[in-house]
UniProtKB/TrEMBL annotation:
Belongs to the barstar family. It comes from Deinococcus taklimakanensis. Pfam families: Barstar. It comes from the Bacteria. This is Barstar family protein. Residues 29-122 form the Barstar (barnase inhibitor) domain.
Length: 130
């Protein structure tokens, strides 16, 4: 079975079983962002602040999130964002999720051009479709 970390990141992907353990075997840093209580942009930015371990100086806007995710000094060259409870969030807040996905996919593309990997892993039961 091919592991997600065997290949370059490709958009939003299903998280492997025991993502943290699998990532450790590939020297991939994992940061978990929990969408359980995200209902608006402010709570979304707080989820990233907590999940990425950012300081209160984090700008809490799309540009600031993009900058953090593409800053080579912020994270190693191999980072996986584990997006927890993302599918229900996307169902609740489709337009906010669409804005977020634009930022995440743009950050993934810029990282790839700069020789870094940014995996976007959705941690959901197998019956959810991305």
């Amino acid at each position: 079975m091919i592991q997600v970390f065997d290949e370059a990141p490709q958009g939003l992907q299903h998280a492997p079983h025991e993502a943290r353990l699998t990532a450790a075997g590939y020297s991939v840093a994992v940061r978990e962002v929990d969408f359980t209580h995200v209902d608006d942009k402010e709570s979304l930015m707080l989820a990233f602040l907590r999940g990425l371990g950012l300081t209160e100086h984090f700008g809490r806007n799309w540009d600031a999130l993009f900058d953090v995710l593409t800053d080579p000094g912020q994270f190693s060259g191999r980072l996986a964002l584990l997006l927890c409870d993302y599918v229900p969030f996307r169902a609740r807040r489709a337009s906010l999720a669409a804005e977020l996905e634009t930022v995440l996919l743009d950050a993934q593309a810029v990282s790839a051009r700069e020789g870094r990997n940014l995996w976007l892993l959705v941690n959901e039961p197998d019956n959810h479709v991305l």
